Protein 1
Amino acid sequence: MKKLVCLLTAMILLTLLPACAAEEAEEPPFLAQYADWYEEDGWYVACEDPALLTAEDRFSADFDWTLLDENGRVLLTGLRWTDDFFAAPFIGFEGEADLAAFHTEAGWGFIDRTGTVVVEPLYDSVGDFFEGLADVQSGGKWGFVDRTGAVVAEPQYDDVESFSEGLAAVEAGGKWGFVDRTGAVVVEPMYDSVRDFSEGLAAVEAGGKWGFVDSTGALAVEPLYDSVDDFSEGLAAVKAEGKWGFIDRTGDLAVEPRFDDVNGFTRAGFAVVWQDSIVGV
């Protein structure tokens, strides 16, 4: 048995070695001059200073980094680490990967893959681009800009979330509401908590109970439940008196709350449910 295990281990290692070698061979030659670098979605950030390799803190603000495209063309120089995250591309991690945030002494902005600054570095902080809009912070308040840098909603909110289905959650005075892509308030900030829109409805919390609003701000489901999940395949999981069930888009109970836990419905029309430690669908 030991010989068989050893043989299998050797075979696995042999299959991995070519892959590792190929991965190492794929390093673009234009990176050879740099002491360290990383890549994300075709953006390269590299540091040329050899002192970086022996530095006690390689991520201090003492080192300049350079932003390059996939062909090695220099797009930005003099980038630095900040207190929270790297002053270079991070938007491509989750948002629209053709734009990247960058930081200068003036603030945060965005650059495209041609090296053109599309949003001037004017902001204290920025978020991801979703649905063509990004959240930006100035003077401690948040607003939104489009891909040309035009301000869609002036920084006036205490907090914001990214756009989903054409609407974004905004917080003012400790309460949450929603704005549309023009910056117009669709749902006044009046809820204790909200979630992103899913299938045209968003979960909202008021007084410790959860319900749903539609894209016009009208209550589709009164806040009656201890907890809810987002709508999936026309149904949403709801919790009442310690048990889970499902409602439809009108708020009618499709499945009475009787399960200990549930997952949302899939495209196949099934949902996983738990009751008395037994799993079913």
Protein 2
Amino acid sequence: MKKTILLGLALISLSTTSGLYGQTTAFVNVNVLPMDRERVLEQHTVLVRDGLIEAVAPSRRVQLPSDARIIEGDGLFLMPGLADMHVTLPSSQATEEQVGDFLYLLLANNVTVVRGMSGASNHLQIKRRVASGSLLGPTVYAGAPPLGGRNAQDPQGAIELMLARRSAGYDLLPFPVTFALPYGIPWQRRPIPGGIPSEGPFPRELASGAPFPAASPP
């Protein structure tokens, strides 16, 4: 079986995301899977400086900086990190250990970016802790609590709630499967200042700008 060194595991060895900056790391003599097409770049060196890939070239051609941290990869494989775009992050009832294990498992499977879809207040805390380096994990894009039902009964209230969640730091607004428009809101004619990305079973009519039947009045 081929041995593979995954980028997620490499990040674990570098301790924290914030620790990537201000240092240089060289993965030496690795077999790189660039994933632009089906090929393997054998016996290459990948040079990472301040968190950015600076060079990918045959090892014999790369001059290693004197201060570089060297990770020997002879006989191993290196590939880009993966992104999981539909993740249910741990709830507010999860323990610190459970949150840490969940995020570590993602990294151990080479997932370096996740998009949370369930929407809970503690997900903002997870996102910020990972970004600061105080919690080891993949980069987190946090979805807001879903819009609809009892929390969006009128047009202006729905818009204000969307803006408040964007201001709080949520990255996107998931729509539930049973999403119904608040009564009387012509969504395609009410632009949201600054906008907020959305995800889920978004009604096709909203994307096309066609009229969409609102929910019946209470």
